[in-house]
C-alpha cells in the first residue's frame, strides 16, 4: 500500500468532535491572553487581512477540517469562500454550522474575539451571519492529486488559506512539497496564500485515530514555498509553551506565513 494511500486509510477513524476538543477548547483556546496559541493564530490572520492587500472574488480554504475560525477575518474581503476537506464527516460538520444547526461546536468565543481585535465595532452575530452567507461551497479535496478539486475546479482563486493540513497529510517532505505545488494550481498568479501549520510535529490524536505528521522546520516550509514559486511577505513562529503540550500531539510550535504566488514571468 502506498504511503499516501495509508494516510487516507488512517483518516477513516478521524473524529471531528475529539479533534475540536483537543485543539479548540481550553487550554489551547484561552482568549484571556494573546500569548495563547489560538489568539496568536487569530491575530496573525486579522493582521494580514487588515493590510487590505488580500481581497477578491473567491477564497479557497484547503483542508478546512471541522473548523471555521480560519475564515473569520477573511469574510469581509471576498465575495465567495469555498471550504474543502477530504472527509465527508468534516464537510458535514461545516454544512451543519452554515445551516445554523444548534448541536454544533460553539464558535462564538472565536467570533467575539475576532470582532474585538478587528476593532470595527462589528457585532459577533453579524459576522457569524456574514461568514455563513459567504461560505457557499463545501467541496471534497485531495491535495495529493495534481488537480486537488478534480472536475469541481473553477477559475483559479484570488487567495488561499490552509491551516494544519499539508504536513498532517504528507508522509514525507517530498510529498509535502508536491502537495503544496498541487494546491498552488488553485491560486491565480499574484494571488495570496495564508498558511498556518505545525512545526516539528510527528503525530496527533483525533479520538481513536492517531495520525502521522511529517515534521517540518521553518526552513523546510520556506524551501517548499520557494520551490512552488512564492514570495514570502511575512513568516512568524509561535513556540508552544509547556502548559499547552497536553498530549494530543507532539507539536513544537506553529508557523504563520503570508506568501504571494509570483506572477507568470513574461518572455
Ligand atoms: N489528501 C488530503 N487532502 C486534503 N485534506 C486532507 C487529506 N487527507 C486528510 N485531509 C484533511 O486534513 C486534515 C486537517 S486537520 C489536520 C490536523 N493537523 C494537526 C493538528 C492540528 C493542530 C491545531 C491547533 C494546534 N494548536 O496548537 O493550536 C496544534 C495542532 C497540531 N495538531 C483533516 O481535516 C483531514 O480530513
How would you characterize this protein structure?
The structure is a single chain. Helix 3 packs across helix 5 (108-118), helix 5 packs across helix 6 and helix 7 packs across helix 8 (218-227). The protein has 8 helices and 9 strands. It is globular and about 50 Å long. A hairpin with a 2-residue loop joins strand 6 and strand 7. By secondary structure, it is an alpha/beta fold. The relative contact order is 0.17. The protein has helices at 3-10, 16-24, 37-50, 88-98, 108-118, 124-134, 173-184, 218-227; strands at 56-62, 78-85, 135-140, 157-163, 187-199, 203-206, 209-212, 230-239, 253-261. The structure holds the ligand Nc1ncnc2c1ncn2[C@@H]1O[C@@H](CSCCNC[C@@H]2Cc3ccc([N+](=O)[O-])cc3CN2)[C@@H](O)[C@H]1O. Ligand JIL is lined by residues 11, 14, 23, 28, 37-38, 63, 65, 85-87, 90, 141-144, 164-165, 168-169, 198, 201, 204, 249, 251, 254.
Amino acid at each position: 500500500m502506498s504511503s499516501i494511500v495509508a494516510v487516507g486509510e488512517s483518516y477513516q477513524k478521524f473524529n471531528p468532535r475529539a479533534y475540536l476538543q483537543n485543539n479548540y477548547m481550553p487550554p489551547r483556546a484561552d482568549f484571556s491572553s494573546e500569548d495563547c496559541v489560538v489568539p496568536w493564530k487569530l491575530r496573525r490572520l486579522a493582521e494580514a487581512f487588515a493590510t487590505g492587500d488580500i481581497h477578491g472574488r473567491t477564497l479557497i480554504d484547503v483542508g478546512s477540517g471541522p473548523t471555521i475560525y480560519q475564515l473569520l477575518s477573511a469574510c469581509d474581503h471576498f465575495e465567495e469562500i469555498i471550504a474543502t476537506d477530504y472527509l465527508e464527516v468534516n464537510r458535514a460538520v461545516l454544512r451543519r454550522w452554515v445551516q445554523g444547526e444548534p448541536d454544533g461546536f460553539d464558535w462564538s468565543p472565536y467570533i467575539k474575539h475576532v470582532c474585538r481585535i478587528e476593532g470595527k465595532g462589528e457585532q459577533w452575530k453579524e459576522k457569524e451571519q456574514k461568514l455563513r452567507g459567504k461560505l457557499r461551497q463545501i467541496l471534497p479535496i485531495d491535495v495529493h492529486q495534481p488537480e486537488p478539486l478534480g472536475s469541481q475546479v473553477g477559475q483559479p482563486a484570488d487567495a488561499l488559506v490552509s491551516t494544519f493540513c499539508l504536513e498532517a497529510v504528507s508522509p514525507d517532505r517530498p510529498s509535502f512539497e508536491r502537495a503544496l505545488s498541487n494546491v498552488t494550481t488553485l491560486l491565480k498568479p499574484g494571488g495570496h496564500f495564508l498558511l498556518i501549520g505545525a512545526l516539528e510535529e510527528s503525530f496527533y490524536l483525533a479520538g481513536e485515530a492517531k495520525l502521522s505528521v511529517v515534521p517540518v522546520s521553518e526552513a523546510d516550509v520556506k524551501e517548499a514555498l520557494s520551490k512552488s514559486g512564492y514570495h514570502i511577505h511575512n513568516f512568524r513562529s509561535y513556540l508552544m509553551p509547556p502548559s499547552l503540550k497536553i498530549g494530543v500531539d507532539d507539536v513544537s510550535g506553529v508557523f504563520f506565513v503570508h506568501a504571494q504566488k509570483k506572477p507568470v514571468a513574461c518572455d
